[in-house]
């Protein structure tokens, strides 16, 4: 009887191994054959799942950012939260991705490097960031939002600046400080 393989689970395992190799050896120094070997697959078999290292990387990034965007959309639907609490919860999705085993530091480093070297990756990353930004804008425009429509783009930009600076720093503020910063940001912008 043939073995049943969950292709999505296999893809996730391949990505996990590839990211470990990228972290250990570097993206440029890791070959497709290295990834296949680490996964216990032949290169030909690996091609059934991914055509290149770039494709593996994009799958990982799109998965991580897609989960964050979905989380933000869920938060936006919650009518039991004030805007500052929604922003704090949205921020925590980014902060948690940094520490919950999703290899966010590796993805962030590779994204910054590959964005300059590969126009396909740059375009796909730009699209993922656009989707994330739209999720935050929807949250800011949601029911019960205290933000004036004309200020929504500014608040979204400030929110992403806070996210980027936190992700790029090696130390994280505790949840209470994050909540305080977001509250101050909303108040400062007259929301």
How would you describe this protein?
With 191 residues, this protein is mostly helical. The chain folds into 2 domains: 1-51, Homeodomain-like (Arc Repressor Mutant, subunit A), CATH 1.10.10.60; 54-188, Tetracycline Repressor, domain 2, CATH 1.10.357. Helices cover 74% and strands 0% of the residues. It has 9 helices and no strands. α4 (53-76) packs antiparallel against α5 (83-99).
Overall structural class, as computed from helix and strand content, comes to: mainly alpha
Strand content range: under 5%
Distance between the termini: 63 Å
- CATH structural fold name of the largest domain: Tetracycline Repressor, domain 2
Number of helices: 9
Mean pLDDT over all positions:
80
Q: What would you call the shape? A: elongated
Under the CATH scheme, which class of the largest domain? Mainly Alpha
Number of strands: 0
Low-confidence stretches: none
- The helix fraction, in percent, is over 70%
**Secondary-structure element series:** HHHHHHHHH
Total domains, how many? 2
What is the alpha-carbon Rg in Å?
Answer: 19 Å
Largest sheet geometry: none
The CATH architecture assignment of the largest domain turns out to be Orthogonal Bundle
């Amino acid at each position: 009887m043939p073995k049943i393989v969950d292709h999505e689970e296999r893809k996730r395992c391949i990505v996990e191994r590839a990211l470990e190799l990228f972290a250990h050896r570097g993206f440029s120094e890791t070959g497709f054959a290295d990834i296949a070997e680490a996964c216990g697959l032949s290169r030909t078999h690996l091609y059934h799942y991914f055509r290149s290292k770039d494709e593996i990387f994009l799958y990982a990034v799109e998965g991580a950012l897609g989960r964050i965007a979905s989380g933000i959309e869920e938060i936006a639907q919650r009518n039991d939260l004030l805007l500052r609490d929604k922003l704090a919860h949205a921020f925590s999705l980014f902060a948690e991705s940094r520490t919950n085993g999703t290899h966010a530091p590796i993805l962030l480093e590779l994204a910054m490097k590959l964005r300059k070297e590969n126009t396909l990756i740059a375009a796909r990353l730009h699209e993922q960031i656009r989707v994330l930004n739209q999720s935050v804008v929807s949250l800011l425009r949601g029911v019960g939002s205290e933000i004036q429509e004309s200020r929504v783009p500014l608040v979204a930009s400030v929110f992403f600046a806070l996210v980027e600076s936190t992700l790029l720093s090696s130390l994280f503020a505790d949840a209470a400080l994050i909540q305080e910063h977001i509250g101050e940001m909303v108040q400062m912008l007259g929301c």
